[in-house]
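Hi team,

As requested, here is the filled-out complex form for the zinc ion run. I kept the field names the same as last time so the parser does not choke. Let me know if anything looks off before we queue the next batch.

— J.
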Amino acid sequence: MIAIATLAKHVVDLCDAFGVGLEIDKQLAPDGARAMTQSYQPDAAKKVRVHPIIDETTYCVALHEIGHCVSPTGMMFFEWSLSMRLFRQPTSVRDIRIALEMEDAAWMWAKHYALEWTPLMQNTAAMCLATYTREARRVLGTGGLPR
Ligand SMILES: [Zn+2]
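And here is what came back:
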């Protein structure tokens, strides 16, 4: 396992390299990380708010949030319905498929750029994706999922 200080520096370096703003929030719950954009335009300035990197989980979640900002399909809010953009209430299968695509893209980006991808990071990714898949099943029923 790579030293935590190295992982923390890697998050800073990736944000610098990809032009993503970085806000490290010690008050943030470890699972409260977010990727944000100034507008719904694809070229809008983007930033991530993450918990300090203290372990593998906070590292892979930070990379996931950076992935939302820089992966070509990581942040397709502009494709969502107005209801989904404003209230995160999906109104169509399309809204949900786009959300799942964004999550997949951000996790693939995180895995690709990680200095090391550990089983714990893989489990974290799977657990996070499962929350979106569960929500999709709740809204769409079992038959409407793309996978
Ligand atoms: Zn995500």
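Two things worth flagging: The mean pLDDT is 90. The radius of gyration is 15 Å.

Thanks,
J.
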